[in-house]
Amino acid sequence: MPGTTTTGNRRRNEERTAMVQLEIENQRPRRWNPLFKWRKYLKIFGSVFLIILACGAVAYASTAAIWYFFEEHLVTPDNSTTSRPKASSRTVTRATRRPTTTVSRHSLTSIEPIEESSPYHPIQERPGPFRIVGFYDSWSKYEIRGRQLQKLTHVIFSALDMNSAGTLSFHDYGIRKKFIDLVEMSKRVNPSLKIMFSIAEYAYASNFEAVVADPEKKKTLCNSIASLIQTHRIDGVDLFWKWPTKVENRDLFVLLLRDIRQKLNSISDSDHQYILSVVLPNFDWPDFKLSLDLNGIMEQVDFINVRTINYYGFWNSQWGAYTGPPSPLYSGLGAYGDSNVNWTITHYMNETGAPGKLNMGVPFFGAHWENVEGPIGVKEEMWFTAKAKTGEETFEGEYIPWREMEGWNLSAAKWHQESRCPFIWLPDERKFLGFENQRSLKEKMKYALEKSLGGITIWSVEMDDDSDTLLNSVQV
């Protein structure tokens, strides 16, 4: 039927037209919406900003926590967790007085070497090359040699006499000739060597007390020092007062050094700056702290020869007579716990903060005991007790120069790790020898360099053998 056909065609045409319009609509590009795009970018930026902010907060909190920990728990030289001491501190961390209680022989054991704690000080640079100072004992039967002078930076002739008026003199013609020979040989073989002389006065025969208390006698001494330096064209003077023990001498000694320093400055010029040094004790007795103004002395001198030797010797005491090395680097025995180089040097560094002005003493000799009893402990090898002669307070023993140890079998010596020294113990003969050798001196040199000390001082150079075995061991 025609009507039905026309209606069907119209419907199909309408459907076809709708489909075509849909396809056209799908192919038409969409309209750009700028507001939508900015929202998208802001959302991304905000997310990134929040992430960065969160990371920054975490990093700041972590850094603050770490800094707080190390600021509050800074590790000091003695490995304890304390706050940093102030640079001006002069606290000595260990008492200088020996214990006065009696220590049981069976309770004594060797003390492990420990690093002494010390207050913080700004490190002072060494005022020049490492010093190798050699004392030359004018009373020795041995002569100093030119080859030895070539290996020193300073040589100190020991010693001139000083009378109660403050006048210096040579003890006799032989001593004077030794001094003149030393000066001539030094200038010939080592022109850069500093030549000095020592004024040595001991407590049992000292004129220092009379001189320091009298202005006129001090003036005489200063003039006598200047005259001798200028006459022989040498470089300086060393004072060895063993030891001022009276409190009233504390300031007088510093004033004496001040007057000598002023006199040396008055004769100095651009070519010659004269040297003033002193020998000071190992401070293991409390009297020294009362009678010696360490910092006052330090202000006047160019360097201090610290006598870190003779810790153990042939004398009795309330603690007994113990064998041992003349100069243990570490360790000690019972009441002698302070009797070692490390304790002494640490005390000087604590008090002064000037390691560059300190020379550590080293011995070119050993300590020999006879009539030695057994060791004080089953496991101990170094510390023995010496027995006095019957009915006497003296002990059979002596200090032996290195060059006179030929009678000992040095190759059989044992090494004592705690004290860093060798020793020989002959139980059948009841003999003991504590001494220095190449190994122990190299340990001391290593210590001196690590502590930034100014140098070492040898007591005394002529004790070495003809091959300079010990002197070669202390070369930088």
CATH homology-level superfamily of the domain at 114-119 and 128-364 and 436-473: Glycosidases
Shape-level CATH architecture of the domain at 114-119 and 128-364 and 436-473? Alpha-Beta Barrel
Helix content: 25-40%
Using the alpha-carbon principal axes, give the shape.
elongated
Determine the CATH topology of the domain at 114-119 and 128-364 and 436-473. Answer: TIM Barrel
Widest sheet, order of strands: 1-2-4-5-6-7-8-16
Give the beta-strand count. Answer: 16
SSE sequence, one letter per element: HHEHEEHEHHEHEHHEHEEEEEEEEHEH
Q: Structural class of the helices, strands and pairings? A: alpha/beta
As residue ranges, the low-confidence spans are 68-123
Distance between the termini: 131 Å
For this structure, the quaternary state is: single chain
| Mean model confidence by pLDDT | 80
From the alpha carbons, calculate the radius of gyration and give it in angstroms: 40 Å
| CATH class designation of the domain at 114-119 and 128-364 and 436-473 | Alpha Beta
**Strand fraction:** 15-25%
Largest sheet: 8 strands, parallel, barrel
Quickly count the helices.
12
